[in-house]
Design brief:
Arc Repressor Mutant, subunit A, 32% helix, 103 residues
Length: 103
């Protein structure tokens, strides 16, 4: 993935959709068509195939499409108020934290 394109998508879908001329709905979804058009207007040449590859190959799972791929959203990290409809889960009795012992 092009690092700059990934940073652009994260910025738009997590923090400032208006910078691309789009809006997120209450669940963080944006129109794919609107996102691509807004990216073009802001000087970024992103097409649907590129977007699809980014979503499918992102190693941290930052983005997702809806079922018909007409909408896209960031899966976490928003500074905007969005409701991702996350399910509450009860943690197991033992939890691990990946920190060095000295901390």
């Amino acid at each position: 993935m092009d690092i700059m394109t990934g940073k652009f998508l994260a910025y738009i879908l997590r923090h400032n959709p208006a910078a691309c001329g789009i809006e997120l709905d209450k669940n963080g979804w944006a129109s794919v068509e609107g996102l691509l058009a807004g990216a073009q207007k802001s000087g970024r040449n992103i097409n649907f195939t590129m977007l699809e590859k980014i979503v499918e190959n992102d190693d941290k799972g930052r983005y997702e499409f809806n079922a018909d791929k007409s909408k896209i959203r960031a899966t976490y990290g928003h500074s905007l108020p969005v409701d991702l409809n996350l399910q509450i889960k009860i943690p197991s009795d033992i939890l691990y934290h990946g920190t060095a012992e000295k901390f």
